[in-house]
């Protein structure tokens, strides 16, 4: 009996395929394996760089005197930065211009200081925009003037209504950030009245190009949380942006600041007017204006301490005059308090200072503005931007 010879183990019939190892055979599979390995190596390297930057690079938002407060800030693709949401009983201790501070910070799900906003219902809702002075750096949540305004209004119950005051201020925010927040997020809260307290951070035009680089979006929010992405973006911006502002003279730079500040305030007024909300401007006094009589009537061309402050306060008065909006100035009330403990530093006020300002605001609202919560704001003719 004859038997057929068995095929060698290495023999593969023509037209058939035979796997070669766990990744299969062929050039395509080998190329895919190389790409996969290279990708894994690249991701590992980027992850290591990201971890190193998070540990050793300077923080995204640095406040040397209050490092815990800096840790409470995160990038925002629309505003540049914001306070993190859902902070609970975060204790902040340190110094503000050599004055010790110790306060507790809570934020709601929107990243705003205070309790959750909730449904509006039949309440008159007041939205407060501003910088760290309005945010209340140095004092507890309940001691900020927005919180005190809400408490006082609900005690007095003007027009028999209930009131809710939402503190939407941000750390070191400028007026363009307040305008963006109002237009993109604040209007969703359906405010009846908006209080804008800006002017303390409108100092220079070094960040002139930043607003145009921030376009918002969920993907950008995710990317901006990467320290590597932020560092790369910062380097590219510096490389590609022309150095134009240093060529401006000091007077031209200050005039540009005034123009941008005034335009942002006018745009806030337009946004409020077209959305049936009333805008109120709050002039924020600094401690020299309260304690030093020589600083109380600063001319527009004042060149002494806080020269920018005098110019920005004149811008506030000009916009209030042109638009007819209410301008609240608590200077006289603070002077009349005759207290040496109204301020923590040159700008940030103590709980006592917040309380004085809150009483001034409530009195102004009670006298002339709260009726508009029921009837809507009076529509004024457009004001040209200068």
Report on the architecture of this protein.
The protein has 386 residues and is α/β, with parallel strands linked by helices. It folds into 2 domains: 22-57; 67-375, SGNH hydrolase (Rossmann fold, 3-Layer(aba) Sandwich), CATH 3.40.50.1110. The protein is 41% helix and 12% strand. The protein has 14 helices and 9 strands. The protein has a 5-stranded parallel β-sheet, sandwiched between helices. Strands 1-2 form a two-stranded antiparallel ribbon. A two-stranded antiparallel ribbon has the order 3-4. The longest helix is centred in the first third of the chain and has 30 residues, at 27-56. It is globular, with a radius of gyration of 29 Å. The termini are far apart. The model is unreliable at 378-386 (pLDDT under 50).
Summarize this, please?
The protein has 386 residues and is α/β, with parallel strands linked by helices. It is 41% helix and 12% strand.
* Principal-axis shape: globular
Question: What is the CATH first-level class name of the largest domain?
Answer: Alpha Beta
Order of helices and strands: HHEEEEEHHEHEHHHHEHHEHHH
Low-confidence region ranges? 378-386
Layout of helices and strands, plus pairs?
Blueprint: H1 27-56, H2 67-70, E1 73-76, E2 80-83, E3 90-96, E4 99-105, E5 124-130, H3 132-135, H4 145-156, E6 163-167, H5 175-184, E7 193-197, H6 210-213, H7 218-223, H8 227-240, H9 250-274, E8 278-282, H10 287-291, H11 307-323, E9 326-328, H12 331-336, H13 351-368, H14 372-375
Parallel strand pairs: 5-6, 5-7, 7-8, 8-9
Antiparallel strand pairs: 1-2, 3-4
